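Lecture notes, unit on protein representations.

Consider one protein chain, 737 amino acids long.
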Amino acid sequence: MGARLHFSSERVNDSLRELRRKRLYKVAVAYGVVAWLAVQITDVLMPALFLPEWGVRFVLVLAIAGFPLVLIIAWALEPNGNGTAAGARARLASLLHGQRLDYLIMGILATLIAGLLINAPAFNQTRAVSIDSVAVLPFTEFGDNGSTGYLGDGIAGELLNSLTGIDGLRVAARTSSFAFRDGATDIREIGRQLNVDAVVEGTLRTDGERVRITIQLIDVADGFNLWSRTYSRDLGGILDLQEEIARAVVSALSIELLGNGDAPVTRPGTASAGAYQRYLEGRVAFHRRTPESLQESIRMFEEAVQLDPDYALAYSGIADAQLLRVSYANVPLEQAREAAERAIARALTLDDRLAQAYASLGLLKAHDGQPGAAEQAYRKAIELNPDYAMAQMWLGGLLMDQGRLRDANMAFSKARNLDPLHPVINGNLAASMMAMGMYDAGLVIFNRVLEYAPASAPVLRQMSGWAADFGHLDDSMALARRALALDESEPQNLIAMARSALWLDDMTTAEQWLGEAQSVAGDNPMLFSYRAAFYFEAGQPSALDAYASSQLAAAEASSPRAMDYKSRSMLDWAGRGRVLMHDYDRGIALLERALETDEGRRQIKDLETLTFLAVAYQRSARDEAAREVVAQCETVLDSAHRQGAGGPRAALMTAAVSALAGRHDEALDQLQRTYDLGWRRHGLIEHHLAFESLRGLDRYNELIRRMREDTASMREQAGEQARVAEADPLTRVSRVD
C-alpha cells in the first residue's frame, strides 16, 4: 500500500511539472481573458444592433466549449523534448483517430450541453428564493425617439399595475418606487427603503421605430439576478406595446414567483394611450400637493377624459384634486364640492367596483362633515383594493380626527407599507405618533422624510405645528420659515408663519402675516380658524365675536347647504365669541349647531367646543345640562386615552374637563403634566373659561409665569435664527435634525 501511494504521488508531481513545462497555465489564463472580453463586447453590441436575445448565451456556450479543446491542442502541439514539431503533429494526428477522437467529441458535446443548461431560462435561478413583495423602478431609456422618458415610464407603470393583480404579491406604489429615477441608489438600499424583497428594473433602447426592452428581477438581499428577459418590438401603438410587454412579464414572473402563469394583467381602464398617459402625469402632479400642481393635475385628468369620455379613473382623479384644493389652495368648498360630486357620480356610473372612486366619495363625505358615511366609503374602497394607499391614508386621517389614534396609526402604517416614501403618508404617520405622546419617534419619521423630500412644504408645516405643541416654539418658527422659503405666495405657508409668531407672543408680527395671507387666500377656511385663534389667544373677545359672527353670516347667506367642516368651524368660533361676551343663550345655540353630526357621536376634536358649551350652561344656571356635557367630555377623553392619546394637548383637555367638574387638584396636576410634556402656549390656557376657577391659585399662577418666561426665551432664540436664515433660509435648526 505504501509503495502504491508513493507511485501515485510521483505521477501527480510529474504531471504538474509537465503542465508547467508546456505552459498550459498561461494558455488557460489567456483564453479566459479573451473569452470574457468576447462575452462583454457581445452583451453591449447585441442590443444596439437589435440582434437576437440568445446571442450572448450562444457566445458564452462557445467560450465554455472551446476551453478544453484549446487546452488539448496546446498540449498536443507543444514541441517534444528534442525540440522537433514532427512529433507534435504526430501526436495531434493520433488524437484524431480511434477512441481518442470519440472521447474528444463526447467531451465537447458534454460541455455544450452543460453550457446550454446553465444558460437556459429554466435554470437562470440557481437557488430557491421567497419573494412576497416587489417594486418596479422607472426604466432607463436610451435612443433617438424623443419620448423624454414617457415610453419607459408608461411600460414601467403598466407593469406595476399588472403586478398588483397577482394575489399574494405586495407591490410598492409608483410614488415611492419612481423616486429612484436617478439610478444612483444601490439596489440593497432601495430594497430597505421600500421594504421589498425584489425590484424589477429595465432599459429601453430605441432606434427609429424599433425598441428593445430588457427587464430584470433582482433580489435586493444580495443583488442576485433572479430572472431576465429581452423583448424586441416595433413601437407601433404604445399602449398595445405596454400591455403586450406587461402580459408577457407578469406571466413569466408569476411562474417564477408563484409557480403559475395565470396571473391577470390589470388594464389601465382605457383603450386610449394618450388618455392613460395623461392620467399617469396627473397623478404625479396630484401627489406634489401644491396649488399649482393640483391645478395641473386637474388639467391632465380633464384632457384624459376628453380623449376617452368613459375613463372612470380620470374622473376619480378630478374629484380628488378638486377636494384637496380646498385645503391646499384658495378654492371655496362649495365650488370644489360641485365639481367633485359630478366627477364621482360619473366614475361610479362607469365602474361601480372602482376603489379609487369610493375613496373619492369618502373624501367628499369627510369634507361635508359626515364621518360615518366617509368611513363607510373608505372601507369599501379598501375592500375593493387593499393596495390603494390613498384610501388607507384618508381613513387614517378620519380616525385621527375621531381620537381613534391606534386605529389611525395602523391605517397610516398600512398606507406607508404600500407607499413607503410618500411624504404626506409619512407625515401623517409621524403626527399620529406625536398625538400619542411619542414626539421623538415621530420626529425620526419627519426628518427621514426631509432627507428624500426636503422641499415638502406640507411636511414642514406639520412639523412646525407639532414642534409648538411640544414646546419647541423657536423650532416651530424656523420650520415655518423653511416652508415659506419654498413658496412665499402659498397661503398655507403664510398662515404657518402667522401661527408661529402668535405662539411666540409676537402679536404684531402674527397680525402682519395674517394680513398677507388674507390678501392672497381670501376666505381660506384655515385662515379663518387661525385669525379667530389669534383674537382668542390675544385676549380680544370682542374682536373674535365680531369677526366670527360676520364670517358666519356671510357664509350662511351664500351657502345654505347642510353643515360642512368649514361652517362648523365658523359656528364654533362664533359660539365661543358669544359666550365670552356673556350672551349665553346665543352661544349655546351656535355651539350646539357646531356639534351636529350625522350619527351624533362626540369625538376628540369636539372637546374644546364641548368645554365652552359646559361653561355656557353653568353660567346660565343650567346645571343638569352642564353636568351632562361634562360627562360627554369624560367619555370622549376615556375613549381617547384607551386609544393611546398621550400628548400635551390631550393632557390640557383633561385638565380643562377636571376643572369644569370642580376637581381642582386633579386639574392642576394635569396642567403640570401638560407643562412637563412641553406645552408653552399660555394664551390658550389664560383665556379659556374652563380654567377660570383656578386663576387665584398659586400653582396655576406659577405655571403661567414659567410658560411666559420660557416663551420669551424662545422668542429671542427665534429672532437669532431669523437673522441666520437671512443668509440661508433653508438652514435646518439643531433640535429638529
